[in-house]
Amino acid sequence: MALITCENVSIGYEGQTVVKELNFSIERGDYLCIVGENGSGKSTLVKSLLGLKGADRGKIIYGDGLKKNEIGYLPQKNEEQKGFPASVYEVVLSGRLNGRGWKPFYRKEDKEAAAEKMEMLGITDLARQCFRDLSGGQQQRALLARALCATKSLLLLDEPVTGLDPIVTGEFYDLIRKINQESNIAVVMVSHDIETAVENASHILHLQETVRFFGTAEDYRKSRIGKKFLGGEEHD
Amino acid sequence: MIDTIVEMFSYPFMVRAFAVGSLVALCAALLGVSLVLKQYSMIGDGLSHVGFGALAVATAFQAAPLSVAIPVVVLAAVLILRIKGNGKIKGDAAIALISTTSLALGVMVISMTTGMNTDVYNYMFGSILAMSAEDVRLSVILAGIVLVLYLLFYNKIFAVTFDETFAQATGVKANLYNTLIAVLTAVTIVLGMRMMGALLISSLIIFPALTSMRVCRTFRSVIINSAVISVLCLVIGIAISYVWATPAGASVVIVNAAALAVYSIVGMIRCRK
């Protein structure tokens, strides 16, 4: 069974449909990139996958042991966090909250998991540092560690490389690919960077109010819409 | 000096002021960190005006002030969050609407009943004599509840304050905790406002958090530092008020402002290094 299956899903705000008739699924170990222009409904879809916004029609089915609140989510850059006093460790550890339910305090396992994820992403030496003092790339690593704390099977990344310089962006993509392959964690990434998306991802979902393309990255390259999108925006 | 301290604590009203004041300062400091970081600072100010209206009405009908004011202010807190949430009226405008309406209502009621007198003055700027033994008992119980709830939900409050969307995505009921923070704030404000004054109580919420953030770099240290500095400033402020016969609320605010100045300087020196 797939981790997430969307059957005929339509989502909207106050009667206005943003995306409609979505049909696709995410399997264990997939690396799916969601691409599309601004306003094509990518962020809305992300909210629905996370269970923050209900679908108007259709069904989003979670399977293969995945629970709705066990998606490791890396949100879009949030300006409010800029001046926030919190250590990297505090931020990463908060990813374990979904396993706590109503219980108030973290256990030893939670702390060990946080330490392990920080080790995995090479930010162990930043643990005591203040989140707001980190560079953009380090902040994203910290938030990625938090996301990994929250999941065993699926990461959902919403435009994770926005505002990062090219070198750091490259490193971040490598990191995601490594996590996807070595830890067998499925990755769903919303991205503007279509070329890198096709290079890295196993599957592409092209949104434009509805699903314009869903399939493997290879097929996308050969498809008409893929060629047009990849061919260079200068022709449009 | 020791004579003054002994003398100060020989008055029951001073002991009550220290006891209730410290508890309120502690609660306000803890909640204040979240409110300031979520840019909800003005909620404190708005709720204290609602409290003023409620106290005025309670006095007019000769009801017990706290038992009228607490439910009214809690209700106002929930209402402000609701309006903020649905987005038709901006949050700060919602707070201004509710707080000025309550203030106006309070002034109307007072002018129709007792007339503008020392009561109004005391509500506005606070009085060190305001607390009865009954009030102290209620305050200690309520402040205890606020503290226990805060500690129990500390990790969730951190998550919701730092990143509401992520917290929600991992199944933390962000709205519930936002409401919890607002309700606890409402209770704290009502408990403290008769001593600090409706116009000054919000300083207890805002100052300690901002002061700590000049120097502290983790959430936990900000929380602990805020709690300590807040209680310390309150005790010093009340003592000053006793010794020099200055208004209690204003003295506490001045001490808080001084603490902020000191921490800012320390913070700046640290940055230079």
From TrEMBL, chain A:
InterPro entries assigned to the protein according to its UniProt record, in alphabetical order: AAA+_ATPase (IPR003593), ABC_transporter-like_ATP-bd (IPR003439), ABC_transporter-like_CS (IPR017871), Metal_Ion_Import_ABC (IPR050153), P-loop_NTPase (IPR027417)
Coiled-coil region list: none
All residue ranges annotated as the ABC transporter domain in the record: 4-234
A single GO molecular function term of this UniProt record: ATP binding
Pfam families: ABC_tran
Record carries keyword ATP-binding: yes
Alphabetically ordered keywords of this record: ATP-binding, Nucleotide-binding, Transport
Keyword Amino-acid biosynthesis tagged: no
Similarity annotation: Belongs to the ABC transporter superfamily.
Protein name in UniProt: ABC transporter domain-containing protein
Organism field: [Ruminococcus] torques CAG:61
UniProtKB/TrEMBL annotation, chain B:
GO CC, any one term: ATP-binding cassette (ABC) transporter complex
Domain of life: Bacteria
Annotated localization: Cell membrane; Membrane
InterPro entries listed in its UniProt record: ABC_BtuC-like (IPR037294), ABC_TroCD (IPR001626)
Keyword Transmembrane: yes
Keyword vocabulary terms for this entry: Membrane, Transmembrane, Transmembrane helix, Transport
Topological category with respect to the lipid bilayer: Multi-pass membrane protein
GO term, biological process aspect, one: response to zinc ion
Annotated TM spans: 17-37, 57-81, 93-116, 136-154, 175-193, 199-216, 223-244, 250-269
PANTHER family per UniProt: ABC-TRANSPORTER METAL-BINDING PROTEIN (PTHR30477), METAL TRANSPORT SYSTEM MEMBRANE PROTEIN TM_0125-RELATED (PTHR30477:SF0)
Family as reported in the entry's similarity comment: Belongs to the ABC-3 integral membrane protein family.
Descriptive protein name: ABC 3 transport family protein
